[in-house]
Amino acid sequence: SVMRTKQFNQKQKLAILESANKVGIKEAARMAGIHYTSVYQWRRRLEAMGEEGFLSYKPASPGRGVKKITVQQEEAVLSTWRNHTGFGPGQVRNQLRRQGITVSTKTVRQIMGANGYQVPRKKPKKDKGRRFASVGWGRTKISL
């Protein structure tokens, strides 16, 4: 059940924000069939830009929340990954950034996953915590 992000133009967003002032953000979002965090983002943007700026605002990429993966992105990710087979999604993303290609780690992971990349199970997180703790203790000892 993938939640399809609906596309709204700025006028429609403004209307949704106005209804949010009356019925509350969560209810307005529910009526519009979107996630309430979107409404918060629009409201922040409206506050930052004012109504005129908001209405003329064009999202950097069409439908900022939709994240359509373009063929170019996919090809760039796959060719980078082929050239650096040991790389994980984050490293591939950094490599692409150097080439001026902005793509989120999540997108890279999706593309790689669709092409046979095995996502390491979530073990590293625990290690990180432990490592931080030991570094912390080390520091404490030093400062004593």
How many beta strands in the DSSP annotation?
A: 0
Low-pLDDT ranges? 136-140
DSSP strand (E) fraction? under 5%
Radius of gyration: 21 Å
The helicity comes to: 55-70%
Structural class: mainly alpha
Written as H for each helix and E for each strand, in order along the chain, the element string is HHHHHHH
What's the number of helices?
A: 7
Biggest sheet: strands, sense, closure?
Answer: none
Report the span from N to C terminus: 55 Å
Mean pLDDT: 80
Cα shape: elongated
Could you give a short description of this structure?
With 144 residues, this protein is mainly α.
Structure notes:
This protein has 144 residues and is mainly α. Among the domains are: 10-56; 71-114. 67% of the residues lie in helices and 0% in strands. The protein has 7 helices and no strands. The chain has helices at 10-23, 25-32, 36-56, 71-83, 89-98, 105-114, 124-143. Helix 4 (71-83) crosses helix 5 (89-98). It is elongated. The chain starts with 9 loop residues before the first helix and ends with a helix. 13% of the residues are buried.
